[in-house]
Write a structure and sequence with these properties.
There is one protein chain. By secondary structure, the chain is α+β, with helices and mostly antiparallel strands. It has 20 helices and twelve strands. It has helices spanning 8-12, 22-38, 56-59, 65-73, 86-92, 163-173, 199-206, 236-246, 250-262, 266-289, 302-310, 319-335, 351-363, 367-387, 392-395, 401-415, 420-433, 450-469, 478-491, 508-520; strands at 16-17, 45-50, 96-101, 111-118, 121-131, 134-140, 143-147, 152-158, 177-182, 187-193, 211-217, 340-341. Strands 3-2-4-5-6-7 form a six-stranded mixed β-sheet. Strands 9-10-8-11 form a four-stranded antiparallel β-sheet. It has a two-stranded antiparallel ribbon with strand order 1-12. The longest helix is centred in the middle third of the chain and has 24 residues, at 266-289.
Length: 521
């Protein structure tokens, strides 16, 4: 079995997107893009089925799954400005869509079962949203697969799966990652590479009498996987042991890790993160300037907060208020369908940029310092992604705002020029402080109590960073805290894991808000 090594730019900081939830909007859009490719871009009708025991049955409309999926089926990007109108534009294009809630034994709370039809034929796929915008196609036409959208996938459908036929096709493609997939009534060969085969090669294969069709599924992630890739470490313990020999800063370890994982130059990794810093800054500035969107609970509040800061009417005039202002602005941009960076998710998108940019601006630090801090945070996120999850549907809000708080704590220590051990100690303490945080969105929107939990997360990160810089003992190593977080999260009742079936989600006020929003739409 091939081990999966998370990428900072795939799994942790990103995608660049619009919408309230990365596990709903960005993930469903990526699923839609892959489904569109499976149909060669020709779709007449689609059936989407959600299991009633999962999270999507209750949240697919209000948290943006429908919007993202239809946008993906139309071939759009996750940051496309047309996304709020994707459902309408899908129907306006003359395409038919049916959404059914039906029990089919889905094993994951974010499961999509999609049947697509066109005049050329039909296909079915099962896909999972695994957190933070990451996806996995687990089944195509009844055949088990594992497609994450991190490579160029060529599917060669064959009528004869005899070994001689398969070997002939293997020889023509000369592929390292080559697998025969058998489903109910369908058989295809999956070829994964870092580019599609040349047209003449596909032409030679298509000419074989046993070949029925060839499908090309383009990657949907920014960083591609490579066969035989290795990484220098995948746990915090391994990184600390490595650091004992190299004595690098945490951000330098992050650059080395991502460079090895992604096949990018170290300068390319830094430049890519600097670009993300600029996107985050634009989102915050636009949020403070003012946002508006009808289908939301909270209005524009960051402007009022800034005014009270200016008038010295708030209790603390220091760094924390800069962070809270930036968190609020970013969350308002998300709720207004503006462009944001999921870090590690859209639901927690305010914490990390709020902490990094808020502290950096207060300290008058430059873009390079912020990029390094984000890289340090990204490496903590790699350890979390490898040992747990960013999906609230799996582990509650501790997997989103909790993870973001742990990442932000390391980033703040990095801005303060702290040591590697201080940074990971801060992450450990921040995560310890936030274990058990539930996900109970009011009115099925990712706004309340999400804004407050992002503010809580950034406040916790600042406190944990200062504790670490002052030499406080973390007591529990970060890897063990991540394992505990995972165990705690999976023991949280499903009603409190982003299903809108418990906690604040079912209060009378929440139900009244839901009804009001339905009425005005």
């Amino acid at each position: 079995m091939t081990l999966y090594f998370p990428s900072i730019f795939n799994d942790v900081i990103g995608p660049v997107m619009r919408g309230p939830s990365s596990s709903h909007c960005a993930a469903s859009l990526r699923v839609g893009r892959l489904a569109r490719d499976l149909m060669n871009g020709q779709i007449d009708e689609v059936l989407i089925e959600f299991d009633p025991h999962g999270s999507l049955a209750a949240t697919h409309a209000s948290q943006g799954s429908d919007m993202g999926l239809f946008g993906g089926l139309l071939g759009w990007e996750a940051h496309d400005e047309r996304l709020p109108h994707a459902v309408r534009e899908f129907h306006d294009a003359g395409l038919k869509a049916h959404i059914k809630i039906i029990e089919y034994g889905a094993v994951h709370p974010n499961t999509y079962r999609i049947t697509l039809q066109s005049q050329a034929g039909s296909h079915q796929l099962t896909a999972l949203s695994t957190g933070g915008g990451m996806v996995e196609i687990t089944e195509i036409d009844g055949a088990a697969v594992s497609i994450a959208g991190d490579g160029f996938e060529t599917l060669v459908y064959v009528s004869d799966n005899e070994e001689a036929v398969v070997e002939r096709i293997r020889e023509i493609f000369s592929a390292d990652q080559f697998r025969l997939c058998r489903g109910k009534g369908a058989c295809f060969i999956e070829i994964k590479a870092r580019e599609f085969p040349a047209d003449d090669v596909c032409g030679a294969v298509r000419a074989m009498p046993e070949v029925v069709d060839i499908k090309k599924l383009a990657p949907v992630l920014p960083v591609l996987s490579r066969p035989g890739v290795t990484v220098p470490f995948i746990t915090c313990k391994e990184m600390l042991e490595y650091n004992g020999r190299k004595a690098r800063a945490l951000w330098e370890h992050a650059v080395f890790y991502e460079s090895t994982r992604a096949g990018l130059s170290e300068s390319g990794v830094i430049d890519k993160m600097a670009g993300i810093v600029r996107l985050m800054r634009d989102s915050i500035q636009n949020g403070i300037a003012g946002t508006r969107y009808d289908d939301r609970i909270l209005g524009y509040q960051s402007g009022g907060f800034k005014q009270q800061m200016t008038n010295r009417r708030l209790l603390d005039g220091g760094m924390l208020n800069h962070m809270v202002l930036y968190v609020t602005a970013m969350m308002e941009m998300k709720s207004a369908m503006g462009v944001i960076v999921a870090a590690p998710t859209a639901g927690s998108c305010g914490t990390l940029p709020g902490a990094c940019l808020g502290a950096a601006d207060f300290l008058d630090l430059d873009e390079t310092e912020i990029a390094r801090a984000l890289l340090a945070a990204g490496l903590i996120g790699v350890f979390i992604a490898a040992g747990s999850t960013f999906a609230a549907e799996d582990a509650g809000c501790q997997a989103e705002c909790g993870a973001a708080s742990g990442m932000a704590a390391a980033a703040l220590v990095t801005l303060a020029r702290g040591t590697v051990r201080q940074a990971v100690g801060a992450s450990s303490m921040a995560l310890q402080n936030i274990l058990g945080l539930v996900c109970d969105p009011v009115a099925n929107r990712v706004e309340v109590p999400c804004l407050g939990k992002n503010v809580l997360a950034v406040s916790n990160a600042l406190s944990a960073a200062n504790m670490a810089l002052a030499g406080f003992d973390q007591v529990i190593p970060l890897d063990e805290v991540i394992a505990a977080m995972d165990a705690v999260g999976r023991s949280i009742p499903s009603q409190l894991r982003c299903t809108a079936q418990g906690g604040l989600s079912v209060t009378p006020a929440s139900k009244a808000i839901m009804q009001r929003l339905k009425t005005q739409v």
